[in-house]
Design a protein that fits this description.
With 191 residues, the chain is α/β, with parallel strands linked by helices. Helix content is 48%, strand content 13%. A 6-stranded parallel sheet has the order 3-2-1-4-5-6, sandwiched between helices. Strand 4, helix 4 and strand 5 form a beta-alpha-beta unit. Helix 3 packs across helix 4 and helix 4 runs parallel beside helix 5. The chain is globular and about 50 Å long.
């Protein structure tokens, strides 16, 4: 299996590349800046990993950068301005897609915009696979399966240690501040 990591030079990207290397999974590091991608590969002890360069505003180039991979993990936030381009390229290239987004409107937009195209292409598109989203969703699913229908389930996520959120996470908050101020999105009664 070969996994492309878009945004491989960022905080989350480097964590993903390091974990893929630890598990013996072939990674292709993809980013906008060849120097930063090479530095990221070296910094996680994976200097010989394949490196490719692509910009989110170059659809053919992005599809080409993902070519030959089975899936892409998109770690290049903020996702609101650029994530859809990577989803579109993954679908066009026939790759499964996962991202580390936490931006609610973007995540909702992925489901609304790309569900039919992903299904037609035979690929899976899964946004929001972060520590703030995926574990709580899986836990809620398991609890509901064991306990039956629940009236309400409240979860919380706290960041402890590490000096706070990454630069990319802060940029994501700034990009979506109006949604945050408005209280975000809620899933209620199936809607």
């Amino acid at each position: 299996m070969k996994i492309a990591v878009f945004g491989a030079n960022g905080y989350q990207g480097k964590l993903v590349v390091a974990e893929l290397a630890r598990r013996g999974v072939e990674a292709v590091l993809v980013g906008r800046d060849p120097v930063r991608v090479a530095q990221a590969a070296a910094s996680v002890g994976h200097p010989k990993a394949e490196k490719r360069v692509a910009a989110v505003d170059d659809h053919p180039g992005l599809v080409e950068a993902l070519r030959g991979c089975d899936a892409v993990v998109n770690c290049a936030g903020p996702f609101t301005p650029s994530g859809a381009a990577v989803v579109r390229a993954a679908i066009a290239g026939g790759l499964h897609y996962v991202d580390t987004a936490g931006e609610q409107l973007y995540i909702n937009g992925v489901f609304e915009t790309f569900a039919a195209a992903a299904e037609a292409a035979g690929v899976t598109v899964v946004p929001a696979t972060t520590d703030a989203c995926l574990p709580a969703d899986l836990l809620a699913h398991q609890l509901a399966a064991r306990l039956g229908p629940l009236d309400e389930l409240i979860s919380t996520h706290a960041i402890a240690g590490g000096g706070g959120p990454s630069r990319g996470s802060l940029r994501s908050v700034i990009e979506t501040i109006e949604s945050v101020r408005a209280g975000g999105l809620a899933y209620d009664d199936g809607v």
